[in-house]
Structures are given as C-alpha cells and as structure tokens.
Amino acid sequence: MTAPGREQRPVLEVVDLVKTYGEGETAVHALAGVSLTVAPGDYVAIMGSSGSGKSTLMNILGCLDVPTSGTYRLDGVDVSELNESQLALVRNRRIGFVFQSFNLIARTSALANVELPLAYAGIKPAVRRERALAALDMVGLANRADHDPNQLSGGQQQRVAVARALVSQPALLLADEPTGNLDSRSTKDVLSILDGLNAQGRTIVLITHEDEVAAHAHRTIRLVDGLIVSDVRRRDIAPVEVPA
Amino acid sequence: MSVFEIFGFALRGVAANKLRSGLTVLGILIGVAAVILLVAVGNGSAKQVEDSLAALGTNTLTVQGGRGGDTGYRTDLTLDIVKALQDRESAPDVKSVSPVVSSSQTLTFGDASYDVNSVIGTYPSYFSASNSVVASGSGFTEEDVDQAARVVVLGPTTAEELFGTVDPVGQRIGIAGQIYSVIGVLAKKGSTGFNDPDDVAIAPLPAVQRSLTGYGPVSSITVEAVNADAVAAAKAEITAILNAKMHVADGASSTPYQIRDASQLLETRTATAETFTVLLGAVAGISLVVGGIGITNIMMVSVTERTREIGIRKALGAPRRVILTQFLIEATLLSLAGGGLGVAAALIGANFEIVGIKPVVMPDSVVLALGVCVAIGLFFGSYPASRAAGLRPIDALRYE
Known about the structure:
The complex is a heterodimer.
Chain A: E1 12-21, E2 28-38, E3 43-48, H1 54-61, E4 69-74, E5 77-78, H2 84-93, E6 95-98, H3 110-120, H4 125-138, H5 154-166, E7 172-176, H6 184-199, E8 203-208, H7 211-214, E9 219-224, E10 227-233
Parallel strand pairs in A: 3-8, 3-9, 6-7, 7-8
Antiparallel strand pairs in A: 1-2, 1-4, 4-5, 9-10
Chain B: H1 3-16, H2 18-55, E1 60-65, H3 79-85, E2 94-109, E3 112-122, H4 125-129, E4 134-137, H5 142-146, E5 151-154, H6 156-163, E6 172-175, E7 178-186, E8 200-204, H7 205-213, E9 220-225, H8 231-245, E10 257-260, H9 263-304, H10 307-315, H11 320-349, H12 363-390, H13 393-398
Parallel strand pairs in B: 3-8, 5-7
Antiparallel strand pairs in B: 1-9, 1-10, 2-3, 2-6, 2-9, 4-7, 5-8, 6-7
Organism (chain A): Catellatospora coxensis
InterPro entries (chain A): AAA+_ATPase (IPR003593), ABC_transporter-like_ATP-bd (IPR003439), ABC_transporter-like_CS (IPR017871), ABC_transpr_LolD-like (IPR015854), MacB-like_ATP-bd (IPR017911), P-loop_NTPase (IPR027417)
GO cellular component, one term (chain A): membrane protein complex
C-alpha cells in the first residue's frame, strides 16, 4: 500500500496475530491469525460484527493488550519485545488512542486532560499548556478548556479525547468506535475532525460497525471470526503521499 | 517527570473528589483519636487510683517493736528512740515522727456505747502522716500533748455510730471510765478492705498512756518521709538509728523491730497499675485493629474505585513509577491530614471529663496511634494502586 515508486516504512505491520482467551476446549480465538500493513498517512476502517475480534485487534495495536502469538511492528519497532516501561513510552509517544467511552479523567479540566500525555512525556508546563490549547483549538474547544468532562456534551468530550490523542503528535491515531456513543451531529463533528487530521497526513485506524463512518476511510477491512475476510480500498482516493 | 509535578497530580487527585478524600481523612481521624482518647481515659483512671492510694499515705513508714534479736539490750520502742528519730542531722529524709499507742476500747456517750476499733494515742504530726484530715472542729496541739489534755478526735464512722445525728464536737464522751472532750471529727477516707480507717479515736499520747495503756513502750512509731521518693532513704536512716540505739550488730540476721513502708499499699498500687497496663494494651490494640480495618477499607475502596482512571493514565503512557508515586503521595497526604486532625481532636477531647475520668494523654499512645494509622493508610493506599498499576492497561480499563 505504499505510494508508487517510493519505499516507505509502514506505520504498523502485524503478521499472523493470534489472541486466544481461555484454554483447552473453552478457548476462544478472538484473533485467528491476522496480518495487516498500514502505510503512513492511510485512513483505515476496521469493520466487523460484535465478537469478530475487531476490539481485540485494536487493543493490541494500541499496546493496551498483548497478543498470544504473532509479531507487531510499530514504526519499525517490534513491540512484542518491549518491556513494561518501554511500552508506556510507546503508548505515550507513538500512539494516540480514542475510546468509545471517551475515558476522560473525571473532575479534571479539559485542558488538564489534554495536557496529561505531555506531562507524562516530561514536557515543561508552559510548553505543555500551549500545545494542549492548540490541540483543543484544533477540535474547536479552546473556549471550553476549563470545563470538567461532566460539563461537556458527549460530542465535546469525544473531541477533547481526540485532542488528547493527537497532542503528542503520535505516528498513529487509533479510534475504537469513536462515534459509538454519539448522536449524528456529534458523529459528524468528530468524523470531520478525523478527516481533517488525515488530510494533514496523520495515519488513522478506526473501528466501526457503521457503513457511514467507514465511508470516511480510504480503506475498509472486514473481520469475521478473527480473520480478515476483505480489504478494500476506495477507488476514488489514491494512496496518500507523505514525505518520508 | 519531576516529583514536584507528580505532587501536583496527587494534590489534584485529592482535591478532585472532596467527599471521598474527606471520608478517608475522617476514617483515619476517628481511628487515631479513638486510640489516643481510650488510652488517655484508661491512663486517667489509673492515675485516679494512684491518687486515691497516695491519699492513704504512701510516704509513711511504720516501725514496730518485736521480740527477739540478739542484743541483750532494751529493744522496746521508747520515747527516747522517738527523739533520736526526730534528729534532723541523722535522719534528713524524715519529715515527722509520731509515736503511737493503741488499744480497743468502748466509748460511751449518754446511754449509747460503741466499741471503737482502736483508740490511738499519738502526736499531732500523726494527722498529716496518716493523711487524716480534720473535717469539723480541730485537731489537738503540741500543747495538749504537753498537758496530757483529755481531748479526742473521732473518725467519721466512730462519730456516726456513737452520736448519730448529734454534732459530736464539744460533747463529752467516756473512754474506759475517763471523760474526754470531742474536739474534732475526721474526714472520710473510705474503706480499703478489711480495716475501716474511719473507725478510730485519736487522742494525745500522754493522756492515752495515763488513762488506758500505762507509760510503757509505744506500740509503733509512724514516720513520715519528706516525699514518696525519699521513703527508701528515710527507711535506711531509721534502720541506722534503730540499730545504734538497740545495739544491733552489723550484719545481724534479725532485728528486734520491723519497718513497714506501706508496702501493702504499694503492692496494691503496683498490681493495679499492672492490671491497667494490660487493660490499656488490650484496649489500644483493639482500637488500633478496628481503626486500622476502617482505614484499610476506605483506602482500598477509594483506590480500587480508581482502577479505571489508572487504566486511562496507563493508556496515555504513564510509567508505572509515576502512577505509584502519585498514589503514594495521595495516601501520605490523606493519612497525615487524618492523623494530624485525629491527634488534635484527641487533645481537645482530653480536656473534657469522660465517664467521670479526666483523661491523661500518653505521648507514647500518640506516636503509636499516629504511626500505625499512617502506616496502614500508606500501605493500603498504595498497595491497591500498585496492583492496578501492574495490570495491563486494557484490564485496568475494563475494571468495574
């Protein structure tokens, strides 16, 4: 999926990923051998019904969970060989994660929530604040910086979560059903932000079971029972060119 | 990431949920205050017992004559010995010396008669040595002793038995056929067991000797030491004087006298104090355990409740160390705030009487209560956090 005539290192590359829950006869194969490569600047939607393994795949891609077997390279680094603190570093620097249920920290202002990844990255408070405000501005919530999550609507909370995910300039933005809990208006807002980010060259992988959402992506992968059954690229959109 | 910044996180964490933080502080406050106050109450009641024992006269020594001894000299307790004991130079720790003769007699007043436990003939200093306070009327004086005046001070039990509701002061009573004037009545001391110390009649020594016991040796000598700590020194000085007077050889195996230093009372006091110590230990132990369980509970709940938050922080790339430090600082802040307020509450509470006892705060209990409660708070504040920080982020995020 690389740009023609150009060698690019894929942002993520998984080979034969298997995730099994339980043991013996009751074992459930959430992922039964998934191989996938995503190039920089791509916009991928992973679809599948409930139980197809898409969330499991997402959690492994986000380094929140570990696969039973298979390899996962993120930005050329074999993640399965990293230890706990190195994984924390990877989650902090290379991945931005947007959850279905927002997962903002309660009773903490939007600004402080967005600053959090930068704080863990060890960035100075003044710089941190500036970057967090810029990220909030990007999602159109600069004027809500001092609001706590419970003072924001679902769509606003998810936009704060998107700001938090992109504030550390990650190589990969993962979104696990980012619009699953939102009304259609907020869904539009969030998706247009994601589209904008992708247009700026950000690599995005999102999970959804809604075709309208998947239509925003350039490439749609369908999972059934832990296996990829289709991998379709929209014809009208050429692979994104990204400076190496 | 600097500790200072993590401290900021912790402060925000504490402030973010004021109700939960407040309850945690309250739990620790109650644990610490309860332990300190309970121990203070126990300690206060022990002090009370000690004080009431001291009221019975613990700095007095009683010298009693006895038979035996290998001296061949006179070994009776005579007034000559009393004079020798009164010598300031050889017995500097002795405050007063009171010779005592006593006998059981029947007192009569009008038609009433009463067998008093003991009629005591002594010096005025006996009153203070035996902690006998004259409640009404007055005690007798040195002058009464010189003149062998027939005056008597009655114990409250004796006065009540003999006079009933009549005011005894100024009345005349008969003791073994002799007429005595009642000049005072002692205050109640309260019974200490077998003997009722309030059942006495105290009169000047020569009067009792002349009319009741004869001018022989006295039956005992009550010596008052200058203070409770000087009792041992006074005893040594008395021993030296008596040995010289009675010509007891150095290292003799037995002496013709006995010195009792209110040892029975001291033994009681020691036993009581020991009982209280055990009781206090038990009470403090139970309170600490109960307080500790309360703190454990609230700390576990408040941190476990935040497992999801820990999951979010981990997903955002928080290193385990930073999460642990944050929760340790939070637990420290809450524990110290709770512990400090608990100590303050206990110190304020100790100013009031609790079930009739004035609590006396023991510094040890403050240190112990504070130490244990803060340690428990720290442990159970950071242990669940460490457990949650050790989880894979996805497990912490899914935690319900």
